Amino acid sequence: MRKSTSAAPGPYERVHLRPAGKALDPSGSAPIIQDDDLTLPKWGACMEYIAHRYAGGALFLPPTHPAYAHFGVAHDNPRVVQMENQISTTLSMLDARLKESDWLAGEEFTVKDIMIVFSLSDNDVISATMSTLTVHHLNVSQSERIPWLCEELAIPYELKTYKRAPVFAPPGYKALHPSGSAPIIQDGDLTLAESGACVEYIAHRYAGGALFLPPTHPAYAQFIYWWHWANGTFQPSLNLTLFLSHSGVAHDNPRLVRMKEKVGNALNMLDARLKENDWLAGAEFTVADIMIVFSLTTMRYFYGYSLAEYGNVVRYLERVGAREGYQRAMKKCEPEMELVLGADAPAKPFGNPPPSK
Ligand SMILES: N[C@@H](CCC(=O)N[C@@H](CS)C(=O)NCC(=O)O)C(=O)O
């Protein structure tokens, strides 16, 4: 290698050594560069060495550059987010193992424990991956969306579940936030309610906006439409129909009839959309799907409508039910619930006595 102070590419010798690379450096992992007496492995070190030694630091931004902080390692850099997700999945597995046994191998302390303690005592790893996110889940409610989101994105969270008392949220839940409505999340000093706000906060704060489509995406308009429609139009229509039908008005009450028509119209729209697309935004699963699924499933414990006429919606729910993130979330937050993923409404609506035999 000839050293140069200009940014012009210098000559270098390229040698393919695999698998003999191990002889060069104990790591044996590519890349490895040599320059006179120096042998250097690791991508970052090689790049810094060559750019600074041979090209005056070209392609590096200086600390005075306005984008310097982003050049370093932006916390929302997709590669970093992916790494953090992998680490948090590993930590969850480790946590599950150590729930069952005192040491990694079981009852006996082994060399495996010595090896892992080094990684676990690295503060950077811990602070990068251990969030303080708490999800307060009210049973049989819209807050199931939040554990689902966290599971899809492998974001660590503490789950606290609350039973309804007997229909509404118990006082302990209501005291968490002035709205008293599920979902509620806490993160450090922050307490946040409202599904859309919680989903946006978690996806952006912890996962670089994953499961949101950016404005440059071809399906962006479709995405924002269904994302807002789910909780801004569809769920409120179901709520109103539920309240009217439980208010003692006759079946042919014009307001009730109108609301049922609105729900039917919404389901027709949805069915047409899902005939052509696997997910609401199109080909990609997004938070729009996480938002709507409660209204199509658990909500039917309260307002027991059938999906028999909406085959595309039923097939969509089959795809939802096959997602591991959904399965994990529902197992954790609703272990006793029979999931409502088929065409029929639940045989036993929430809060009602079982049908007499
Ligand atoms: N638009 C709100 C609606 C929240 C809401 O109404 N949650 C219901 C659960 S499905 C609730 O908290 N009900 C219990 C109560 O009001 O005591 C959101 O999406 O967060």
Automatic annotation (TrEMBL):
Membrane-crossing segments per the record: none
A Pfam match: GST_C
SUPFAM superfamilies to which the protein is assigned, alphabetical: GST C-terminal domain-like, Thioredoxin-like
Alphabetically ordered keywords of this record: Transferase
Annotated GST C-terminal domain residues: 216-350
Residue intervals of the GST N-terminal domain: 130-210
Molecular function (Gene Ontology), one example: transferase activity
Keyword Transferase: yes
Coiled coil location: none
The protein's name in its UniProt record: Putative glutathione S-transferase
